[in-house]
Design brief:
Helices cover 45% and strands 12% of the residues. It has 682 residues and is an alpha/beta fold. The strands form 7 sheets. A 6-stranded mixed beta sheet has the order 19-18-17-20-16-21, covered by helices on one side. One of its GO terms (molecular function) is cysteine-type deubiquitinase activity.
Length: 682
């Protein structure tokens, strides 16, 4: 049987060599991988079957990594392998098949690799807080896990599923539910028998990865509703002063006022602009006062101390004494002053406007279950995290405001706002704050001229000028969203990626394409440097510094969209660019489909189609506008006639066999790390 499997692998190799007969570089590379040099097929028959099933030969460096990870006495370790080295597609199935014989994309890949000749069943057990198992369901889950172990199966789980199960077991014990003991016993069983393999360990062990279970009865956030009203006033001042800062420091701040009467899209690029902008806001607040805080009535000495108090991260003792022991410091002014201090000195405004990008790091998620109208974290461009939430209430309020300022209100949200407005005693006053666009027809600038019963007129003639109105958005959020959504809990349970790396009876092994975050690994996990991989970092840098790599600085922003601006630039570049990797996530104004269509239109007829991601699936768009999944398309074997566009989230983990002469364009953006850049480029 072993000889028969070896014959199959030899046949596959012969076919690959024949297919590469016109590709000298590919032929040399294939000849260099003879296979079976540093391992014996008789000792690892599962690996041999994987080769025969997948039509591959395990490379020497892949076996070196796998051999280290097979060791039972190595402890919890993480190893480095160059991006594109087959960590997910080859090494994970090798290890899963071997270790199971001892005592979506990944799911599809494991089933494809292990479900054939290797005859390994892949079990999938997602778990989240909304799953409320009773005693019977808890026992059934335990039996399912025991079945997986008895059948030498592989259990595929997301990191959040592991942490969610841990927290659910603890929560059930604290609340004395009948299933508590069964869940705790199952967790103990997993800690005792599981042998974990962690892919993309730098991401899964990140200190930013945290799962929280809130406990207790909901209650309004402290200082509500004044909390969000004051933040709305402050962010309004940001919109007022941002263009002034832009005129003085054009390279340090990005300001785009796309909608008249709305809030300009503002992004802090450098500290000098942030310092200038925040100081302007602070001086205006103190010198002119703000809702609930009549600072304009104070003496110049107190005003000077107040500016220092709300802008200095570590104010001098005399400043603190001057403010907190003055007659101005009362129960009614304490909370707004501390809130201002958090926004300005504490870095919350700087964080929201500088470190967070709309539709890249945060935004709305209308498809989330249960629904929320608050801003949620994004994993990448237009890719909201399924269950994550921002924990700091001021950050939530700020990012929610920005999400609606930049994205606008929907027709239904505006109808809801008008419905609430008509019940108000100050409806006309509030509407005057909405109707600030100079393009709004004169007939509709007074509330009496608006009839919400005429829905067609509202949608066609009124709403386009109110959709991005800061006044309308503030009203909608203040009365219809924040009072219901801005709640907090007295206690919480928390687990992080470090809990995945906890010491258990059997070791954990993982790997990543870079070792940039090795100093941030859990204390229970150590990085293992293999001599055979010591060159990896240098090789990555060598790829980046090759002579054929050039840097193209985009011309200043024009009236064209970001996508049009970038596409027109790369179309002019020589040699021709056939692959666009948006690692910097700078194409935000168009969908993947729109970018693909426009890029294809700019190319000559020798380019027949474009490959891109749509609904998490590789899709092909051809010249006549027809789309189909790549794996069922004839273009799957004709990528040499295709363009390829990958948005930020899919630059990592996507494997396409492209012609060796293809040239790629890679976008760079503020805050792009070496890790993300190199992962996306390999």
């Amino acid at each position: 049987m072993i000889e028969y499997a070896l014959a199959i692998t030899s046949l596959h190799r012969a076919r690959r060599l024949l297919a590469l007969s016109d590709n000298f570089a590919g032929l040399i590379e294939e000849f260099s991988h003879a296979g079976h040099k540093n391992w014996k097929p008789k000792e690892f028959p599962e690996t041999l079957l994987l080769e025969a099933e997948s039509g591959i030969l395990i490379r020497a460096e892949q076996e070196n990594i796998a051999s280290e990870m097979r060791k039972a006495d190595a402890g919890n370790i993480v190893l480095q392998l160059l991006m594109g080295g087959g960590k997910s597609s080859t090494i994970v199935p090798m290890l899963a098949a071997y270790l199971s014989n001892q005592e979506q994309q990944m799911l599809q890949m494991l089933v494809a690799k292990l479900g054939g000749l290797l005859n390994r069943r892949v079990y999938h057990m997602p778990f989240a807080r909304h799953v409320q198992p009773g005693e019977f369901e808890a026992i059934l889950m335990r039996k399912r896990l025991e079945e997986c172990m008895a059948n030498r199966g592989i259990l595929l789980v997301q990191p959040e599923h592991i942490l969610s199960f841990k927290l659910r077991a603890v929560e059930s014990a604290l609340t004395r539910q009948v299933c508590a003991q069964s869940l705790l016993d199952t967790q103990e069983f997993l800690d005792r028998v599981s042998r974990d393999i962690v892919d993309e360990s730098d991401e899964n062990f990140s200190v930013k990865f945290e799962l929280v279970y809130s406990m207790g009865s909901q209650r309004p956030v402290d200082f509500a509703p004044e909390r969000w009203v004051l933040i709305q006033e402050v962010i309004g001042l940001v919109g007022r002063f941002a263009p002034e800062v832009k005129s003085q420091l054009p390279d340090s701040i990005e300001v785009r006022g796309e909608y008249s009467g709305g809030f300009p899209r503002t992004r802090l690029l450098r500290d000098d602009a942030a310092d200038d902008l925040l100081m302007r806001v602070a001086r205006h607040v103190v010198e002119h006062g703000i809702i609930g805080l009549p600072t304009n009535l104070q003496t110049s000495t107190i005003q000077t101390a107040l500016i220092r108090y709300i802008t200095d991260i570590d104010p001098a003792a005399e400043v603190i004494q001057a403010v907190e022991q003055s007659t101005f410091w009362t129960k009614s002014t304490e909370s707004p002053l501390l809130l201002l201090r958090g926004l300005l000195a504490g870095g919350i405004l700087r964080h929201a406007l500088g470190s967070k990008r709309w539709r890249v790091n945060f935004g709305l998620d209308p498809t989330r279950k249960p629904q929320t109208q608050l801003a949620v974290p994004y994993r990448a461009k237009d890719n909201p995290s399924p269950r994550s939430e921002f924990s700091h209430p001021d950050v939530v309020i700020l990012l929610t405001l920005l999400s609606y300022y930049y994205g606008g209100l929907s027709d239904q949200q505006l109808f809801d706002s008008f419905g609430h407005l008509h019940k108000s005693d100050q409806a006309a006053v509030h509407y005057n704050d909405w109707a600030t666009s100079p393009h709004l027809p004169v007939a509709f600038r007074q509330l009496s001229g608006v009839s919400i019963k005429d829905r067609q007129q509202c949608v066609a003639e009124i709403f386009p000028y109110l959709r991005f109105s800061k006044g309308a958005i503030d009203y909608y959020l203040s009365f219809l969203v924040f009072p219901k959504a801005m709640r907090e809990f007295p206690q919480k349970l928390s687990a992080s990626g470090w809990d995945i790396g906890a010491i258990k009876d059997k070791p954990l092994t993982g790997f990543s394409g870079t070792n940039d975050t090795l100093h941030l690994l859990p204390l229970t996990v150590h990085h293992l440097d293999l001599p055979s991989q010591s060159h990896t970092n240098a090789l990555v840098l060598e790829y980046l510094l090759r002579e054929e790599n050039t840097v193209e600085v985009l011309s200043p922003h024009t009236s064209r969209t970001d996508a049009e601006h970038i596409l027109s630039t790369i179309v002019r570049m020589k040699p021709e660019i056939r692959v666009l990797l948006d690692c910097g996530a700078i194409i935000l104004d168009q969908s993947n489909r729109q970018v693909a269509e426009r890029w294809l239109d700019m190319q000559d007829r020798t380019v027949e189609a474009v490959v891109y991601f749509e609904d998490e699936e590789l899709t092909v768009l051809d010249r006549i506008g027809r789309t189909e999944p790549l794996h069922t398309s004839p273009f799957a074997k004709q990528l040499g006639s295709c363009l390829v566009y990958l948005d930020e989230v899919h630059t990592r983990g996507t494997d396409l066999k492209l012609p060796r002469n293809y040239r790629a364009g890679v976008t760079l953006g503020q805050g792009l790390t070496k890790d993300k850049l190199t992962q996306g480029m390999n």
